[in-house]
Amino acid sequence: MAAMTDAWWKSAVVYQIYPRSFSDSDADGIGDLRGIEERLDYLSALGVDVLWLSPVYPSPQDDAGYDISDYQDIDSTFGTLEDFDRLLAGVHARGMKLIMDLVVNHTSDEHPWFREHRDWYWWRPAREGMEPGTPGAEPTNWRSFFSGPTWEFDPESGEYYLHLFSRKQPDLNWENPEVRHAIHTMMNWWLDRGVDGFRMDVINMISKDTALPDGPGGDGSAHYLCGPRIHEFLQEMHREVFAGRDRKLLTVGEMPGVTVEQALRFTDPARAEVDMVFQFEHVGLDHGPSKWDVQELDLLALKACMNRWQAGLADVGWNSLYWNNHDQPRVVSRFGDGGPRSAKTLGTVLHLHRGTPYVYQGEELGMTNAPFASIGDFRDIETLNHHAEAGDGALPALRARGRDNARTPMQWDASPHAGFTTGTPWIAVNPNYEHINAAAAVADPDSVFHHYRRLIELRHTEPCVVHGDFTLLMPDDPAVYAFTRAYEGTELLVVANWSAEPAALEVDPAWLGEEVVIETGGGSGAATLGPWESRVYRRSAR
After folding, report:
1. Euclidean distance between CA atoms 97 and 195, whole angstroms
2. Residues with catalytic annotation?
3. pLDDT tens digits for 171-192?
């Protein structure tokens, strides 16, 4: 694993591709591998180092490909293994790397394993004294992430199987060594094929308390988040899959509910588990009791949260940095004002933290949430299931927080369907594509695209961005996000106004005469930031 040898990924930037919505080469309305291949020069021009593909394996697409029915093939919707090999060769030819989405907490119920290896999954009888298959007879009271119970009754056997997500996504039983061996074999197969690592979906759920006890109010997370054998399982994975390989690989674990203290253990290179984790604390700050309870972002809480993660992993471990991904609404609509200046400022703040930044497709264009008119415009299972329970009254929350906001087609140009497809797209293109699109952005030197390109270039060329200490400034200011980075005699000052009103800078005035390496407003020497303005200053020790 890279953490044991050369931490090349500290200066890298990862770009997430949601293949279904990226670029369609065959006019069927769904993105595919050849479409991605045709856009590699665009990604190379942006300057990213690693491409992360959301799942492209065969799948019934109950959960947009995160329900896998064959780990060692490509879904015909996206192409063939030969298409994949050609894409991988094209990525490598441009000096980039490619990581796969590894979904091994669960499979599809249409995976042969589910039919052939009953003991590879979690099966339990009905609750004692209850009639199997009747309401309330489920083995535990756990609630699924996608609404309803986590248990599905199988009339043929009279037992239930566990699914933390969709009923078509039964959870694998990692207690069975045969399961782990099959997964390790599959991972080695992909690495031998040339893949450069994995982003591991909900990987901190693979170890469960085998008693599977009830949870308060149906919340069973205490019994499956970072369970009793999680570190053992990840260390075994490292030994069986990554140890001894001399290639530069990347492993990132998506870990809902993980704490700073837990992340420190997961990412400590000496423990050989994962290189970095995705945590969710900062993207849960504008939630109430659930993600559908929409709240305003408290900037003070965000700064405190980010600062805590920066401090907690300052000496050991490593941060993943992201605002967007396939599960999150568009950050420019969520935390910004929907306009290009706020898109740039949000990018500035994120990329100047210590950690590896992730750019989600279209983020570099300032793509926004979509104006979904009715439930018929949505496609995501989580959204549709919540609407089935909550009704049309939930539509404002679905528009604000629904995962489909991230999944509308990539906006390539101003032609019909934004140049994504010449067919009918599987989900409607955001109508603002006529002025927010890649062709226009690449042609405009002042665009969000070129701002992101400059941020990525700064990470590649300024060691302080990668290695510098992080110090939060103005922690109690409700509008300004400010911090410094310092490394081997170089200091950076990052200041950003997260509001539509001018904001005063309470920093050492000497900074205002220093070199400005990145800015969004042009007022480099002013002691006031304009609306959504951000700047990055640099100075050397005297």
Report:
1. 8
2. 201, 254
3. 999 999 999 999 999 999 999 9
